[in-house]
């Protein structure tokens, strides 16, 4: 039996923003924060990143639709703030 591994995440990426400001602005604690130039998992990020992620799942069957819905449900209440954050902090969203 083969197993698969996966997770779903949403991130806000940019060069010159402080991830803690995004956290305060949205009122949502990120799963992961990456700072450009620091070493993260043996890699050096080229930009800052604020990420909200599901748990990493290892299973024969992974329902990415359910995992995506989990993230979307956390972000729905702050939809307007996400749109404003894009401009205010000069970040790009990625799902």
List descriptors.
four-stranded antiparallel β-sheet; 3 helices; 25% strand; 95 residues; 6 strands; alpha+beta
Low-confidence stretches: none
Number of strands: 6
Beta-strand percentage range:
25-35%
Mean pLDDT equals: 93
Tell me the number of helical segments per DSSP (H or I, 4 or more residues long): 3
- What is the CA-atom radius of gyration, in angstroms? 14 Å
Structural class: alpha+beta
Helix-strand pattern: EEHEEEHHE
Query: Rough shape?
Result: flat
What percent of the residues sit in helical stretches (DSSP H or I)?
25-40%
- End-to-end separation: 29 Å
Largest sheet: 4 strands, antiparallel
| Adjacency order of strands in the biggest sheet | 3-4-2-6
Structure explained in plain terms:
- This protein has 95 residues and is an alpha+beta fold.
- The chain has helices at 19-26, 64-75, 79-88, and strands at residues 4-6, 9-14, 32-34, 48-53, 57-59, 92-94.
- A four-stranded antiparallel beta sheet has the order 3-4-2-6, with helices on one face. Strands 1-5 form a two-stranded antiparallel sheet.
- The radius of gyration is 14 Å and the shape is flat.
Topology, element by element:
Layout: E1 4-6, E2 9-14, H1 19-26, E3 32-34, E4 48-53, E5 57-59, H2 64-75, H3 79-88, E6 92-94
Antiparallel strand pairs: 1-5, 2-4, 2-6, 3-4
In short:
The chain has 95 residues and is an alpha+beta fold.
């Amino acid at each position: 039996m083969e197993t698969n591994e996966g997770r779903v995440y949403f991130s806000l990426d940019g060069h010159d923003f402080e991830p803690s400001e995004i956290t305060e602005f949205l009122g949502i604690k990120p799963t992961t924060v990456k700072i450009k130039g620091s070493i993260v998992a043996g890699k050096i990020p080229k930009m800052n990143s604020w990420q909200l992620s599901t748990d990493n799942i290892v299973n024969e069957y992974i329902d990415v639709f359910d995992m995506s819905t989990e993230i979307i449900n956390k972000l729905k209440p702050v939809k307007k703030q996400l749109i404003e954050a894009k401009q205010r902090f000069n970040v790009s969203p990625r799902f």
